[in-house]
Specification:
The protein is mostly beta strands. It has 11 helices and 32 strands. Helix 3 packs across helix 4.
């Protein structure tokens, strides 16, 4: 009985901190108070005060790169506001050694005139656990310039002046935080979340001017690891800082921390939804040419066999001026079907809209129906059919965007090439380019960023529609990717972990040399077969089939590869290792730019498993995503990191140049390059090119149809 009473008393005392937080959340404040400066970033590179988090969120889709330094430690953090409420962060830090970590935070309550915003966060929930901690935090705007924050932390954020975990009232196990069981790091140890002692933290932020914010906070982080090894002496729990906005997308902070240290940080922000370059320098589209009454009945032009060729030549010239290419054209008295190549406009409706205006300028008045078919690698991707009279009616209408979309018919284009006349200059045709290249390697403890630079000679020979011979030779001029002395310690077949040897021995390298065939085996079906030196590390044959109806959010694919590992010098020779690898894939567009992908099958090391990917894509060509791969390779055999994971980005140059170029920069950031879950890198995979001309992708960016 006495023991039960003692436990009840203990739990009542533990509930007092929760009551305090609840009282904070019920604060009565004047209606309409809004923060003037918005959210700012902490030393952890996440929305926060100085070293502690807040419940504020960055602007939806904001991408922040932060670098902070104090007490001999440096944190480099990339944070993305995945949704208006959810954000994710990847951090690469230097304390005694280099460390990688991931964070997630979710704002589950919005601020109201009478209540605070509240958020819950997981800090370093995938990593070695050096920064591991959890928190619940509330933030309230008292005046447009003044905000206050209070929160409860666990783990690292509950390590100073901690008390018995109030969640112990639910279950005694919350009162003890288990030690890390991960031998290789990178595992998600959910059994530790919100367990062990808890502690309060909080602070205030005052927007002194439009550019300057002043901050003070009480920290619940004991910095036990750092003080134990003598990096600094923790004399106080109170921190002071200032945040100065250099530009709208640049912030600089300075801090006085823990009564003994001075720290600085820098934040560089961008938002894929907003162009970095103000205005646009691209050429304006041609206007829609309106027909006079009675002209549409004149079919005399169909009697002259030279007229069709003249119309093709004029159309090809105007498309070329707009950065597009005429692939093929079929004409009748009232209809026109045109196949185009679009290498400039990442918003695909912009290419379709500009083509429609060109047709209105060139084609005789009797042609009422335009069918526009984008083509990539010789295969038609979709058919958008428009009425010329609709274009004439809607060009300057207030609601032209959605009325034109509603009247457009978007359908499969598998048979659209029948009876068309190809542009004779396109096949066969050889094109080439010579330019610089950069190759990067990240997160080597000896040198966190390594770069190779050189020249790349690329060539492409379009033999016939759907048949492409292409290749690239690279000459390294300078760099240090191959200079690492850290040998692979892989316990499984080394299929990626020796990449540095390819950089070291392949100063002059045949990067790839392939013959590819693209085809349409039937309605809603797309196919590809590629053979040759597929990438710098593997050669062989790769085949793919994709099922993707034009109006469907779902796509299904299958890929099979039979490959052999190439010599390190990337010449024509091969090593002994060969493997058959392949995947079944499912793709789904959830709407609002969120797209998921699951690939299940066999990987390069012979392991079996699945890769889960989630991307957020934008109409202007930006894409930010993350993936994780789990296979039958054990965490211990996989090695450091436990499983393959990473971030992937597609960045359109249009965003920064303010004009359409069609060029993008693609990169994947892997915390570690290991051998488990490794896939073949082959050019020309089908889904990305096909989906961009299908619904709902076209609908999402249809606002650029009239641009």
């Amino acid at each position: 009985m006495r023991k039960a009473q003692k436990n009840r008393s203990k739990r009542r005392r533990a509930l007092r901190p929760l009551a305090a937080i609840g009282g904070f959340g019920l604060m009565m404040l004047p209606a309409g108070a809004q923060p003037q400066g918005g959210s700012t970033y902490s030393t952890y590179g996440t929305p926060g005060l100085i070293d502690m988090p807040t419940a504020q969120s960055a602007e939806d889709a904001e991408l922040g790169l932060s670098v902070s330094h104090f007490a001999g430690g440096t944190r480099n953090t990339l944070t993305f506001q995945l949704t208006p409420r959810l954000s994710g962060s990847f951090r690469y830090s230097k304390i005694e050694s280099y460390d990688r970590s991931f964070d997630l935070r979710y704002r589950f309550l919005d601020e109201t005139p009478y209540g605070p915003a509240m958020a819950v966060g997981l800090q370093d929930f995938v990593g070695t656990g050096i920064y591991s901690g959890e928190y619940v935090v509330a933030t309230k705007t008292l005046t447009p310039r003044l905000t206050i924050t209070g929160g409860l932390g666990w783990g690292r954020l509950g390590s100073h002046n901690g008390f018995t975990n109030p969640l112990g009232v639910l279950n005694d196990r919350f009162e003890t935080r288990p030690t890390s069981s991960a031998s290789t790091g990178g595992q998600i140890e959910s059994a530790k979340w919100f367990r062990g002692d808890a502690a309060f933290f909080g602070g205030v932020s005052y927007q002194a001017t439009d550019k300057l914010a002043l901050k003070a906070e009480y920290s619940s982080d004991a910095y036990a690891r750092e003080t134990r090894v003598g990096l600094f002496e923790r004399k106080s729990s109170v921190n002071f800082g200032l945040d100065y906005r250099l530009r709208d997308n640049m912030h600089m902070q300075a801090y006085y921390l823990y009564g003994s240290e001075v720290g600085v940080s820098f934040n560089l922000l961008t938002n894929p939804r907003k162009p970095a370059a103000n205005g646009g320098t691209g050429a304006a589209p041609l206007p829609v040419k309106r027909r006079q009454a009675g002209q549409s009945a004149d079919l005399g032009w169909t009697q002259n066999p030279e007229t069709a060729q003249s119309l093709r030549d004029q159309t090809a010239a105007l498309l070329s001026n707009d950065g597009m290419t005429l692939e093929a054209l079929r004409l009748s008295g009232s209809t026109a079907t045109i196949h185009i190549r679009n290498a400039r406009y990442l918003a695909r409706p912009e290419a379709i809209g500009r083509t429609a205006r060109i047709l209105s300028q060139v084609l005789p008045a009797s042609v009422e129906t335009f069918t526009i078919v984008p083509v990539e690698n010789g295969i038609p991707l979709s058919a958008t059919t428009l009425k010329r009279s609709d274009l004439e009616e809607l060009e300057y209408a207030p609601d032209a965007t959605w009325r034109s979309y509603a009247r457009a018919e978007i359908s499969d284009a598998a048979d659209s090439l029948e009876g068309t006349t190809y542009n004779g200059v396109l096949y066969p045709k050889f094109t080439w380019s010579l330019g610089p290249y950069l190759s990067t390697s990240y997160f080597d403890p000896q040198e966190p960023v390594r770069v190779d630079a050189g020249l790349s000679l690329e060539g492409r020979y379009d033999i016939a529609p759907g048949w492409v011979l292409s290749g690239a030779i690279k000459q390294q001029v300078a760099g240090n990717v191959g200079s690492t002395t850290r040998a692979s310690d892989s316990k499984i077949q080394k299929v990626r972990s020796e990449g540095f040897l390819y950089a070291r021995e392949g100063e002059t390298a045949l990067n790839d040399l392939t013959l590819a065939h693209y085809f349409r085996p039937g309605q809603d079906l797309y196919g590809r077969v590629t053979a040759g030196y597929l990438e710098r590390e593997y050669g062989g044959i790769s085949g793919e089939i994709l099922w993707k109806p034009v109006g469907s959010r779902l796509a299904l694919g299958a890929e099979l590869n039979v490959v052999k590992q190439r010599d390190f010098d990337q010449g024509f020779g091969f090593r002994d290792y060969s493997v058959t690898t392949g995947h079944m894939s499912a793709y789904y567009d959830f709407g609002n730019g969120y797209e998921g992908q699951v690939d299940a099958g066999r990987y390069l090391a012979g392991d079996y498993g699945a890769t889960f990917t989630l991307d957020r894509t934008f109409a202007n060509g930006w894409s930010v995503g993350a993936y994780a791969t789990f296979t039958d390779v054990s965490f211990d055999d996989f090695g450091e990191g436990s499983f393959d994971k990473g971030l992937r980005f597609v960045v359109p140059l249009d965003h920064f140049l303010g004009k359409p170029t069609g060029q993008t920069y693609k990169t994947v950031i892997q915390p570690l390059t290991r051998d488990g879950g490794a896939r073949l890198n082959v050019n020309g995979r089908l889904y990305d090119s096909v989906r961009s001309y299908h619904d709902p992708k076209l609908k999402d960016s249809w606002g650029r149809f009239w641009r």
